[in-house]
Structure formats: C-alpha cells, structure tokens
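Chapter summary example.
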Amino acid sequence: MTLIPTTPLRYRDEELYLDECALERIAGAVGTPAFVYSRRYIEERFQAYQEALKDLPHLICYGMKACSNVAIVKLLGELGAGMDLVSGGELYRAQQAGIPPERMIFSGVGKTEDEIRQAVRAGILMLNVESQLELQAISRIAQEEGRTAGISIRINPDVDAHTHPYISTGLQENKFGIPFEEALEMYEEALELPGLEIRGLQSHIGSQITEIEVFSDALDKLIEVYRTLQEHHIGIRYLDLGGGLGIAYQCENVAGPAEMIRPLLDRLRALGLTILFEPGRSIVGNSGVLLSRVIYYKENREKRFAIVDAGMTELLRPALYNAHHEVVPVRRLDREPIRVDVAGPICESSDVLAKDRLLPRPRPGDLYAILSAGAYASCMGSNYNSRLLPPEVLVEGDRYRVIRERESYADLIAKERF
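The structure predicted for these 418 residues follows.
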C-alpha cells in the first residue's frame, strides 16, 4: 500500500483523502468507476513551470492529450497556459474553454486538411510541420482561406529519450518530425511558399522522460539548426522544446520543472527567443485517481484475483504499455495482506490493472484508489464491451464538483441508427 509522496493523497483516521475531500464520500455520491482530480495540485504543477522560466520570455502550452476535460483546460488557461493540440477535437475543446488562439500550437504527424483549415481559420500561433507534403498543404489551404498561417518545423533530433518505445518520438526510426539534416531545406521551401509565416523551431523527443540530460542533448541539436538558419537569414521568434517530463508512478525520484530547466537556462537566455514547453503528464498525472470497487474475489491454484469494476476501458496504460499504477484501499483494512492481481471486467486477458500486489484480502465492496490516473487515463477511455464512460470529478479544497457526468445507455447509442 504505497502512497506516492508527491501526490495530494493522505490517510486521515484510516480514510484516504484527496486534498480535503474523503474519497469514500465522493464514490458514494457519484458511483464507481470514477476519476477524481485535485485542482490545487494541477495549479501548483503549472506554477512550477512558470517559476522555472520566470527569467525568460516563455509560453507553457499544456499538452491536452494527457487529459482534455474542458474544465481542466479552462482552469489552466485562466492561469496563463497555452495549449498544445493534436486534433481538431482538441482545438474545439480549447476554443470552448476560452483559450486565446495566439496561445495555441498544433502538433501531430497526420493533420487532415479539415483540421488544418480549422486551425488556419482560428488564427492559432503555429502549426508544427512534420513533412514536406504537410507544409505544402498548409500553404495551399492558407491561400484558399485568404490568411497567413504561422508555422514551425518539427525537427527529429535523433536523440534517445530512454523511455518506453511506444512513447519515444525523437529517433529516426519514429514517424515524427523532419530529419535533423533536412531542416534547412524545409525552411527554405517554406520561405518560397505563399500563405506561410515562419515563426518557430520545434522538437519533442518522447514522454515519461526521467533522464533530464536528454533535454540538453535535444537543445544542442536545436541550437545547431537555429545557427544554420541565422547564417541563411531565416528568422524565427519561438523555440519549442516539447514536453515529456515524467512523473513518479511508484516512489522513484523524478526531477521537477526547475531541475529540468536549470541546466538549459544559460543557453536559452543567449538565444533571445521566446521559449515554449509542452508539459502534459507532469502537470496532471499525479493529480488524479481512478476509484473502483471490488466486485468479486476469486482464486485458483496459480493466482488470486480482485475483480473490480474498472478496467482497460478506463485505464488502458497497463494493457498497452505494461505500465505500473499503485493501488491502495480507500479505507485502511485490518485483514491479512495477500498477493493479488487487480483485474477488470473486460473480456480480454490483458485487462489486468495491477499484477501481484500486496493488498488486504479483498472482499466485494472494497473501494480502491488507482493512483497516477490524471494523465492518459480518461482521455484514452473507450466504450469497448459497450461500457459507459465514467464521471470525472474536480476536488477544490474541501468541496468537489462533477466536471463530466457518467454516460447513460441512451448516450451510448445516441448516434446510432436502427
């Protein structure tokens, strides 16, 4: 029963609280499974980036793919955050949350023409270009719309982020970005194409990065490209180092924004550019928990299982990445601790949220908190097995509010025709 020290979770009188709210009370009111987030934690993590960059012109563009609930997007926007978008849907969410377009950037290797048109019409700060054909498409669409599209070129610096291969994005074997050696050629073509304004240079090498030296390696590559652009009289105003800073999923020691940025400050200051970062997981990841109740306990000659009402439809990361999430009882239980697999109800053998965990012998009705569920959890949810998407709850001090209602069966088939 490990509580990660950096989370807003604490036991009080044998009961688990997130900030000033008892999680059992929330589960009783909204049911399970349910996501619960700490507003205070999200604000503090965002402000840590602001503080680390306070001496530089900068813009923190929250990576919406981590958790795109409009209430959280709006909260961060009110703190001064921009948004890093990867789809037209995220652009729509950001607009609904009131994010100014000049604080939006659009990433992604497969932007459709409709998405590009949507971004050009909105007048966002930059589209991060990932291929020659995309560059040409943006130019054509900008002309059709009678507008100028701000762009940056995403460079693939061939830097190994030493993270899970599924979330590594900065190697030549990955699909993302323009090869480092082809950067000048792309910028020269962008200069010649109508409807474009070159504004920035961008890189993003991966996610859940815990070795901060790789950010320094990527910056060195970007500075080299920037100096080449200067030599060819191609100007930029923004340097975007992407995101990817990791969080503690167990009790590992993970650097924060200040530790990541401090070794880069002198080089960044010397450039005289506005610096962008795109943090997502490191702002919201440990803000949230997934609440789930035990439905059944079962065992065989090989294994013991706590079958819970949350599964891979709520938290895909364990099935997709073999990712680790701590699981703790919401109320301390004076029972024999045993080794169990915490498994979901989905008809897939991969639907196991936690393997071989030491927990009090499970009984039906036990309430668990699955930790570090603020990022890449609700946003990766699905209706597989015709499951209903769960509610999301935002804790604000000693109060909470529902920021997404649980789906109903009517919602489930609302767009189907029969």
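To summarize the output: The longest helix spans residues 213-231.
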